[in-house]
Amino acid sequence: MFALSARDAPMKGRRTYASPPCLAAEIDPAYFDPLARDPEQARDVARWRRAERARLADLRKALGQEGRARASRAIADHLEQALSACNTGHGTILAGYWPIKGEPDLRPLLEKLHEAGVTIALPVVETRAAPLVFRRWAPGTKMVRGDWNIPVPPHDAQELTPDVTLAPCLGWDGDCYRLGWGGGYFDRTLAALRARPLAIGIALADARLKTIYPQPHDIPLDLIVTEAGVLARRSG
Ligand SMILES: Nc1nc2c(c(=O)[nH]1)N(C=O)[C@@H](CNc1ccc(C(=O)N[C@@H](CCC(=O)O)C(=O)O)cc1)CN2
Ligand SMILES: Nc1ncnc2c1ncn2[C@@H]1O[C@H](COP(=O)(O)OP(=O)(O)OP(=O)(O)O)[C@@H](O)[C@H]1O
């Protein structure tokens, strides 16, 4: 007997199958479409994600400024090592992010990487519900207010295609799936880029979930970096 926790909520009351119900098409050919989503389950997952986002945002707030600063420094150290193991250096285009709502602040590392010759970009929501645009940033760039009041480089800053992109996570799971703020922007962006960048999630270790209940649009990241270390996605 399993106790259903809040984290299991989307699957509550649903029957699961030991194997896919693949004979359904033989009963009614119109019935089985492997690309179709179960709208009821998608709604349940969306509701669960909203609740988890609120819980995880509170968890981050509860850390306090000093706790978050300590975590940010540890994340920056692990990230720096991971980047150097991936041969990221002079000439690489790396998309960071401008921290909002208690996200780990990696701006000191972005400055250091810039000094080392890495080209830094930041994400910009230029069109709602569309892929992100990345624009060049350097220390001293005069920022403007973008969508959701997120500071972004000005409109005339050079548009870049990143080799590496950092993605701040509210939550994450052991398969390197990310839970963000709910706009779907990173998934859309990774889906749209012809050459996929190395995608690195930035998260607190405590924000790990058993699963984010990945949906067809969710794209797993390559690495997750937390204050406790680095998780690489198993390939295959
Ligand atoms: N610092 C930082 N910059 C970032 C991101 C991020 O996660 N962190 N993004 C990472 O993607 C992009 C912005 N992401 C956004 C995500 C959601 C909404 C938004 O309007 N959210 C709605 C709910 C949307 C919904 O539920 O459908 C809201 O909260 O009202 C806006 C921007 C680009 N820049
Ligand atoms: N490739 C895509 N094409 C169309 N819609 C998408 C795509 N990816 C995500 N979406 C839409 O975005 C919605 C929110 O996605 P999700 O819950 O994964 O957000 P998130 O990854 O937490 O947000 P964000 O990346 O902005 O922080 C989904 O319900 C889906 O409708």
Mean pLDDT: 89
Q: Structural class, judged by helices and strands? A: alpha/beta
CATH topology: Rossmann fold
| Number of distinct helices | 5
Separation, N- and C-terminal Cα atoms: 32 Å
Strand percentage, roughly?
Answer: 15-25%
Relative helix content: 25-40%
Descriptive notes:
The chain has a single domain (24-232), classed as NagB/RpiA/CoA transferase-like (Rossmann fold, 3-Layer(aba) Sandwich). Helices cover 28% and strands 19% of the residues. It has 5 helices and 13 strands. It has helices at residues 24-27, 39-62, 64-85, 107-115, 185-192; strands at 93-95, 119-124, 133-137, 144-145, 151-152, 159-160, 164-168, 171-173, 178-179, 198-202, 208-209, 223-226, 229-232. An 8-stranded mixed β-sheet has the order 6-3-2-1-7-10-12-13, sandwiched between helices. It is globular, with a radius of gyration of 19 Å. Keywords: Ligase.
Q: What topology does this entry show?
A:
Blueprint (H helix, E strand, L loop, with lengths): L23 H4 L11 H24 L1 H22 L7 E3 L11 H9 L3 E6 L8 E5 L6 E2 L5 E2 L6 E2 L3 E5 L2 E3 L4 E2 L5 H8 L5 E5 L5 E2 L13 E4 L2 E4 L4
Parallel strand pairs: 1-2, 1-7, 7-10, 8-11, 10-12
Antiparallel strand pairs: 2-3, 3-6, 4-5, 8-9, 12-13
The protein binds ligand FFO and adenosine-5'-triphosphate.
Summary tags:
single chain; 236 residues; alpha/beta; Rossmann fold; eight-stranded mixed sheet; three-stranded mixed sheet; 28% helix; disordered N terminus; binds ligand FFO; binds adenosine-5'-triphosphate
